[in-house]
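Archive maintenance. Older records in this collection stored only the sequence; we are now back-filling the structure field for every entry so that each record is complete. The fields below show one back-filled record exactly as it appears after the update. Entries are processed alphabetically, and Uracil phosphoribosyltransferase is next in the queue.

ARCHIVE ENTRY
Title: Uracil phosphoribosyltransferase
Organism field: Epibacterium ulvae
Length field: 225
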Amino acid sequence: MCFIELPQTNRLRALHAEMRDAGAPREVFVANANRIIRDVLETCIGQMPYVEHTVKTPVGATYVGTRVAVDVCAVSVVRAGESMEFELSKIFPTLPIGKILIQRDKVSKQAKLFFTSLPEDIAQRHVILMEPMLATGGSALMAISELIAQGVDEERIFFANILASPEGLERVRACHPEMTIVSSSVEQELNQEAFMIPGVGDFGDRYFGTIKSGGQNGQQIRLPA
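Back-filled structure field:
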């Protein structure tokens, strides 16, 4: 497995600090998350095959550049993975995006597949699998297994991720050694509730505003229905 962690620059750590802050308002959380998501996605795309591509410039000169040499699609793991679609649309506006719905039982922590909607020709494409959190690895493994069942070669899967636990990485590495994972941070550990430490809380809830930060002592407060 090819695992790439983004360079831990001061700038990236500043973005993480603002995003992780329990008191950060939603707009601050989303703005910083989007910056990190963009870097993760660009890194995934940079790992794909490229070919030489020559163009004429407005002054009549020739520029020899490159372009992605393969057909690409994306698949987001609903719902947190959908947070990554906004930045992806800026990079590849016409890219097909499939959906996989997987939910984890709150008691057993086991993942269950509920729904898939994927491009018909996904087996011929390189796939960016978008899921911000890699904790236990259960949801990721189920999503990867579904892609492989649809004919996608393991080495054509690029897992775009924001936070990864050492346990989750090791589990995915053991099952899918040919896949590429790009993450912005490897966390310290999982706690007994399978939350990553230091973590970011529930990424999907914070991104889409179904909870907000700023409660007493940094506690998260659910918005009224």
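Update note: The first helix runs from residue 10 to 20. Residues 2-53+64-222 form a domain with the Rossmann fold fold (CATH 3.40.50.2020).
Entry marked complete.
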